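Weekly structure sync, notes
Attendees: PL, DS, HV (note-taker this week)

Item 1: Phosphotransferase family enzyme
DS walked through the input record. Source organism listed as Kitasatospora viridis. Sequence as pasted into the shared doc:
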Amino acid sequence: MIDEPPPQAALVAVAARYGVPPHEVAQVPGGVANHSFRLGPHLFLRVPRRGEEFLADLRKEAMVIPLARQAGVRTPAIVDFDESRTLVDSPYMVLERVPAPDLAQLDLRGDARAKALRELGRELALLHRIRRDSAGVPDGLPEDDLGDPFGEVDRMARDGYLDRGTADWLTDWFGRLGRRFPTEPEKVLLHGDVAPQNMLVDPADGTLRGVVDWGDACWAEPGMEFAKLSLFDVVTVLEGYREQSASWTDDGLEARILWYHLSWGLASAVRGRPQPDARHWTAPPVSRLLNVLRFFAASPPPRWAALS
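Item 1 (cont.): predicted structure, written out as tokens:
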């Protein structure tokens, strides 16, 4: 793997393979796992940064993106996944380029934002129809689970982050949430990093153009999918989700989602470090917990209010 972007000569060679002239190669700043480049108006190049985990994520994307597209999910198609290292000293992926900004770049509000979020919900419902026994599903995708918030709360109390009364209250809350869903819920295919920066949106009307960055895809129960969205946005996403997935008619899904927001928020508050340059809203260590506080202080819908 390589830490620095590929040499210009290598980028020019890759572009030439796909009929793109050198002056139409442009690096896209940012990105934790990949160096990214626009190849003309229609293609997008991704080269993993140094580290086996980033290469593994790109290989995972090569497996998952075709499955998602087969299920009807709007995500750019893979044009090529080259592991030969003949042009670049690294595997790379070329995708179709969707000429739209991500939601994190936009100050999208009102009906336009709601449209994007509902459409996202419908896309996720299509994705979650994919089970391990679905046709064409490859081996090798990782699995994730609910985790152990009870142990986390107990450690926080022992280490002095919580008083015992607050720890007992949180333990009781997790217990009440857990009773609303089965201990062994069915696992489905998750995108794993559903967040505004991975939603490509038409700024004119909020149409969702694509969901990108599949490197965190895994098998897990559906509630985990919504853990990287603000709870205020989750409410609207679930409207679209339930239009496509009639199986979620009670508040079990909301209980699962709140479980993750609470447990991940507690862990981040203790072990997280400030990331002033990060784009995702959960980067500040206490943001997720404060989002839960704001959400429940703002008179949430009845399904959610019943969980407090």
